[in-house]
Design a protein that fits this description.
It contains 11 helices and 9 strands. By secondary structure, the chain is α+β, with helices and mostly antiparallel strands. α1 crosses α3 and α2 packs antiparallel against α7.
């Protein structure tokens, strides 16, 4: 498989199901990190493959036929498609620089934003910077909410949480600067190697729970816990370490539904891992929604 040409939908489906060889998966991951179109296609495929289709299970099909269920799924899909298209257009030609950060290369693409390897021009320090969707207006309440949430996240110091180093808005683009970690998110780990051994899955969940528990003690709720927001990193002593990504961004995403601060392409979370009460009341969930998702 070429790392330059876009893969077929059949190859992407095999990747989602963990059916590619390690070499094939590695090439595809490299391609996904630089191709927005393929990454969006993969996200759509994952939404149908991570959990069995409701229509394929005769028991679940009864619930899938309910008007409320169809309405919720339809809203999620429509909202995701329109915002993904707008976000893709905005990020087709990203800026070369955000304030004091020179953007070096795209290293990831997610529902909330695009991640770049960047260099602080004065400190010569490498970081990861996530660019979020442009705001559609100049609302001071949006800016205040963003700064407030990022201050809370910036105060978190825990081995199982990716540290936030800086945040702000530049030319209408909200950005979050994070420590640059060497690793692989759990969604792609599972896509490469298939179903994880029970012991490994339990250890990943245990470490993620430690990070989330600390965040909950500080009054923060993630609200979008999923495999792609859990990063398996390789520290210097080669002991696998799980870090939680995107703390605080899910809360900001809530404001975006009405004030257009950011784009998550989702309704306050990801459908496959969303607590039932979160689908009904996105404003009122607490730490129990994170426990459900985990």
């Amino acid at each position: 498989m070429s790392s330059i040409n876009c893969p077929t939908s059949q190859v992407l489906n095999r990747f989602v199901r963990g059916e590619l060889s390690v070499d094939e998966a590695d090439l595809l991951v490299e391609h996904l990190d630089t191709c927005v179109d393929c990454d969006h296609t993969l996200a759509k495929l994952e939404s149908h493959v991570i959990l069995p289709s409701l229509d394929e299970d005769p028991v679940q099909a009864r619930f899938a036929a309910e008007p409320q269920c169809r309405e919720l799924v339809g809203k999620l899909q429509d909202r995701g498609a329109s915002r993904r298209d707008r976000f893709r257009a905005e990020m087709s030609a990203p800026p070369d620089r955000i304030r004091d950060y020179e953007l070096l290369e795209r290293i990831g693409q997610g529902a909330i934003g695009v991640v770049f390897r960047a260099r602080h021009t004065h400190l010569n320090k490498l970081v990861a910077i996530k660019l979020l969707m442009k705001r559609t207006g100049d609302d001071e309440a949006i800016e205040a909410r963003f700064q407030r949430e990022m201050r809370a996240v910036g105060g978190l110091e825990h081995p199982h949480i990716v540290r936030a180093l800086d945040a702000g808005v530049c030319d209408g683009i909200s950005f979050l600067v994070m420590e640059l970690v060497d690793g692989l998110d759990i969604a792609r780990l599972a896509s490469r190697h298939g179903t994880l051994p029970v012991a490994d899955a339990c250890e990943i969940a245990r470490q993620a729970a430690l990070g989330l528990h600390y965040a909950h003690q500080q009054g923060l709720v993630h609200r979008d816990v999923k495999p792609s927001n859990l990063m398996l990193v390789r520290p210097h002593d080669n002991t696998p370490l799980v870090k939680v990504l995107d703390l605080g961004l899910a809360t900001i995403q809530d404001q975006a539904d009405e004030l257009h601060l950011t784009d998550a392409g989702q309704l306050m979370g990801t459908l496959e891992y969303m607590a039932p009460e979160q689908a009904e009341d996105t404003h009122g969930v607490d730490h129990r929604a994170d426990i459900y998702a985990l």
